[in-house]
Amino acid sequence: MSAAKLIEFNSLDADIQELIMASVEARNYSYSPYSNFKVGAALRSEDGIIYKGCNIENSSYSVTICAERTAIAKAVSEGK
Questions:
Q1: Could you tell me the end-to-end alpha-carbon distance of the chain, in angstroms, rounded to an integer?
Q2: DSSP alpha helix (H) spans, the chain
Q3: Over 90: is that where the pLDDT of 61 sits?
Q4: Which among 75, 55, 74, 53 is positioned nearest to 63, based on CA atoms?
Q5: 16-59 confidence digits (pLDDT tens)
Q6: Which residues, at least 6 apart from 63, have a Cβ–Cβ distance to it below 8 Å?
Q7: How far apart are CA 15 and CA 43, in angstroms?
Q8: Confidence category of residue 4, pLDDT binned at 50, 70, 90
């Protein structure tokens, strides 16, 4: 197995940079009082709209939702 290759943020395409920044912003809204592990995610729909999501924890673990699912649910609930 080879070592991971590090890539400078500024060398990424502007579209990828925008998604990363949206993910970082979404992370600020995380509700994670149990793990204290804040996660953000972002996806871009075919029409270019970015949907952001964050992890949302609950004391009942089965109700917890990950950031990726939140972003997908937001996009689907808005017709994407």
A1: 38
A2: 14-27, 67-77
A3: no
A4: 55
A5: 999 999 999 999 999 999 999 999 999 999 999 999 999 999 99
A6: none
A7: 11
A8: confident
pLDDT at 1 over 70: no
pTM of the model: 0.87
Measure the CA–CA gap between 51 and 74, rounded to whole angstroms.
Answer: 7
Please list, in sequence order, all residues whose beta carbon lies within 8 angstroms of the beta carbon of residue 30, skipping any fewer than 6 positions away.
Answer: 38, 39, 40, 54, 55, 56, 67
Which position among 8, 18, 57, 68 bears the catalytic label? 68
Whether 78 is catalytic is: no
